[in-house]
Amino acid sequence: MFLEIITPDKKVFEGEVDSVSVPGASGAFQMLKDHASVISTLINGKVKIKGKDGEETFDVKGGVVEMLNNKIIILAESV
Fold first, then answer.
1. Is the CB of residue 16 less than 8 Å from the CB of residue 1?
2. For the purposes of burial, counting CB atoms within 10 Å of the CB of 43, is it exposed (0-12), middle (13-18) or buried (19 or more)?
3. β pairing state of 11-16 and 2-6
4. What is the pLDDT along the chain (79 residues), one digit of tens a residue?
């Protein structure tokens, strides 16, 4: 899967990942390869990314996540 994390100021992350966990407005959820298409608002919390190089965590302050055709875009208010 391909992930981009973008804020109004800059692109925070871009690259291939194995899984992404996000703090959705209705509860945290994880996206894996071939996950159903989804759009969700985000609350303040941690975005956890797992990839070939290990695990990374970003603290986001709200935003929106979209997954479509194994591409995930997170538009965060701030990181």
1. yes
2. middle
3. antiparallel
4. 999 999 999 999 999 999 999 999 999 999 999 999 999 999 999 999 999 889 999 999 999 999 999 999 999 999 9
Q: Domains in the chain, ordered, with CATH?
A: 2-76 (2.60.15.10)
* 38: amino acid identity, one letter: V
CA distance 57 to 55: 7
* pTM for the full predicted model: 0.93
CA–CA distance, 2 with 67 (Å, rounded to integer): 10
Residue tagged 């996000």 (tokens): 22
